[in-house]
Amino acid sequence: MDLGISGRTALISGADSGIGWETARILLGEGVRVVLTDLDQKSLDAAAASLGALEGRLFAFAADVTKVESIAKMRDRVLDAVGDIDILVQSSGITGAQGYFHEIDDAGWTTTLEVDLMGPVRLVSAFLPSLRKGGWGRIVLMASEDGVQPYDDEIPYCSAKAGVLALMKGLSRTYAKEGLLVNCVSPAFIHTPMTDAMMEKRAKKIGSSVDEAIVSFLDEERPYMALKRRGEPQEVAAVVAFLCSEQASFVNGANYRVDSGAVASI
Description:
The chain is α/β, with parallel strands linked by helices. It has 9 helices and 7 strands. It has a single domain, classed as NAD(P)-binding Rossmann-like Domain (Rossmann fold, 3-Layer(aba) Sandwich).
């Protein structure tokens, strides 16, 4: 399928691995100019190198999404290097504080919300003037199954992702008339460094191998994931890329679940 976005410019956060990196790979293949951003410049440079030599079409600038001034500095570098962007994919995030509500302190809540909710808010705020200029644009925010089906041992993350869904819906109602379409993708238990760390922690806790920890997690914690496996980043990135495309020209304010059926409700 021709996504109709050759020549467009995209910024992808959380792009040094996982879903962000796979999204960059797909968009580059569609002729898009791509800017990668994440916390660490060295890991970004390695991620860019693994995508191949794409002179003039691939850039990498680090930023800390918890700091307004860091995002502003990165934005200025992007504008100097490539000009205005057409597409913003926000894929950065952390698991954050885990445990039951009474076990999580104020710092745990603050850290999680700073990255997983305020990070998207700050990125959109920094690049919205750029995105509004061309009469055509796409914003894709990464939510989660947890945003609509909260779990009792990760309430800060669930709350942040519910906030991302509300942010998306509000933005979609404001800017669609300008040609800027805003949507979310909600994955569940994808094979990324974040879930690798979760499963390593679980394996130590229950005294099992990581593979056994994954099986027990699916059986005990995610019983509605009918495919009984972790999703792969490229399976999510394919949906993200579609929402970035001209093919999604009538999709706005939507939440696309990529979750193997993890959400029990319709």
